[in-house]
Write a structure and sequence with these properties.
Elements lengths: L3 H11 L7 H15 L7 H17 L1 H11 L4 H12 L7
Length: 95
Amino acid sequence: MENDNLRQAYLKCLLEEGPCTAEGKKLKELLTEALETECSKCTDKQKQGAKYCIKYLIKNSPKDWEKLSKKYDPNGKYQAKYEKLAKEEDVELPK
């Protein structure tokens, strides 16, 4: 996440503003299902990685987090669903 170029490449992929690597395509394919199922098919390592990325974006790149939220959660459905988890992780979700 600290690598600006790599982070921006993934963000552009997820936001359909740029090309995707094979990993980016896979992430984009699985993202909605992971949100719907609370990442039920994810490994513990993948869950930890997702938490880290979310925390990082909210804290260090809130504009990027806002763009992703608008694209993948335009009605706030997932934010409402994950508020308890966010509190447990000491993450304040933007309103």
